[in-house]
Every structure is written in structure tokens, then in C-alpha cells.
Design goal:
253 residues; alpha/beta; Undecaprenyl pyrophosphate synthetase; 10 helices; globular
């Protein structure tokens, strides 16, 4: 049974009131999952599900902004998704392009595309980069827009970039092997210079990473929510923060 508006608002306020400073992660990664299943459950088309998901993104960013999150990473499209049928992929890319344009148009958040952008159609890549350029000077929350993203691909790209950098310096493979450590690779990730995610949220009830921020999430806390992404509400977000705040982070110890 759905909560009436007054009850929902009261519960939301209660959750927010009891959040401590420790409940606010610096960096939140979100796997926006369940758009297609949301649409199927309603007898709607796949594009309608993707659009409903896109329409919920600004809400999430607003909630993050309200509690003081500094960085948000949104996984909008994986490298595996690029192999989908063109009849589904092209409309999905169009929805992503328009969603990113709309986020940039608010002037509230600094957008940073992450992923194997070279694999994307030219128009999609150009619109992502244009949104990044438009928001480069925004003094607001940093939002990583992960499109054409895969964790294994990111690590491979980081290693490739590292090798090319040292080759340009004249470093031999043997010399590089002597000095190589995890920080050298971290400096070549798509998210270089950013804090690793403290909290990773996945919607739709799936309890797996699926390749999201594989390197960066080594010490992250995970929260799995049953709601499909288009149905994800502020109360769900606050519950995730509450669960995060109740955990004793061990950072691999």
C-alpha cells in the first residue's frame, strides 16, 4: 500500500532528521537499473522506460546536493549495451543525449563524461563533450556521466595510457616494472584525481557490480534497492544513506 503524501513526507523528514554527518558520503556511485523491466511491468515500450529513468536523474542529483555529496557517478550505458540492437540503441542514445543536455542547462552541476567515448557515435560523443565544456566552470557538485563505460575497459585503457606515457619518456618495460604500483594506474583512470566512491547504489533488486567502477569500489559500501530506477524516491535515497551511516567501514582491514 502506497503511503499518502502527508505520511510519506513525514517519514522522509524523519529519515533526514536522524542522518548524522557520517551518513553523508563524499562520492556516490549509482547504477540506474530497471528501466526496461519498469516499462514491461506497465505494458509500455522500452523507450518509455528509458525516458522515465532519465526524468528521475535530476531528482537524484538534487537529493545528493541537499545533503552535501561532492561527487556522483551515474552509470547510464555500459560497453555491453553498445552491442544492443540498433532499433533500441539509437533511441536510448538520444534519450541520454537530451538528458545530459538538460542537466548541463541547469547550470548547477559540473558534468564529466567517463567511458570509452571513442566507441560512441560521433553525435553522442560530441554532445557529451559539449555538455562538459558548458559546465566546466560551474562551482557545484561533480557529476560523472558514465556512457559506454565498462570497468574492465577502464582498467585496460588506464594501463594502455600508462604504457604510452612511459614509452614517450623512454622508460623501458623493465624499468617500469620496478616502479609500478597501484597509484600509477589510478592516475590514468577515467576518474583520476577524484575520491573513490564511498557508497554504490544499485536499483532493481540486482545484487552484482556488473563491471561498475571495479577499481575504485574496492573499499566502497554497497546498497541494493528493490525499486526499479524510475520508481526510486527520495525516501529510498535516504534509506541508503541511513544504511551507509550504520556501517563500520573497514577499508579492507
Amino acid at each position: 500500500m502506497a503511503l499518502s503524501n502527508p505520511l510519506y513526507t513525514a517519514y522522509e523528514r524523519r529519515l533526514a532528521k536522524h542522518l548524522s554527518a557520517d551518513s553523508v558520503p563524499r562520492h556516490v556511485g549509482v547504477m540506474l537499473d530497471g528501466n526496461r523491466r519498469w516499462a514491461k511491468a506497465r505494458g509500455a515500450g522500452t523507450s518509455e522506460g528509458h525516458q522515465a529513468g532519465a526524468d528521475n536523474i535530476a531528482n537524484l542529483l538534487t537529493w545528493c546536493e541537499e545533503v552535501g555529496v561532492e561527487v556522483v557517478t551515474l552509470w547510464l550505458l555500459s560497453t555491453d549495451n553498445l552491442a544492443r540492437d540498433e532499433a533500441e540503441l539509437r533511441p536510448l542514445l538520444g534519450i541520454i543525449e537530451r538528458a545530459v543536455d538538460a542537466l548541463a542547462g541547469t547550470g548547477r552541476w559540473r558534468l564529466h563524461p567517463v567511458g570509452a567515448l571513442s566507441l560512441l557515435p560521433d553525435v553522442t560523443r560530441e554532445r557529451l563533450m559539449a555538455a562538459a565544456a558548458r559546465t566546466a566552470d560551474v562551482d557545484g557538485m561533480l557529476v560523472n556521466v558514465a556512457v559506454g563505460y565498462g570497468g574492465r575497459r577502464e582498467i585496460a585503457d588506464a594501463v594502455r595510457s600508462l604504457l604510452l606515457e612511459h614509452a614517450g619518456r623512454g622508460t623501458t618495460i623493465e624499468e617500469l616494472a620496478e616502479i609500478l604500483d597501484v597509484e600509477h594506474i589510478a592516475e590514468h583512470l577515467y576518474t583520476k584525481g577524484q575520491p573513490d566512491p564511498d557508497l554504490v547504489i544499485r536499483t532493481s533488486g540486482e545484487q552484482r557490480l556488473g563491471g561498475f567502477l571495479l577499481w575504485q569500489s574496492a573499499h566502497s559500501e554497497f546498497y541494493f534497492c528493490e525499486a526499479y530506477w524510475p520508481d526510486f524516491r527520495k525516501v529510498d535515497f535516504l534509506r541508503a544513506l541511513r544504511a551507509y551511516g550504520e556501517r563500520h567501514r573497514r577499508f579492507g582491514a
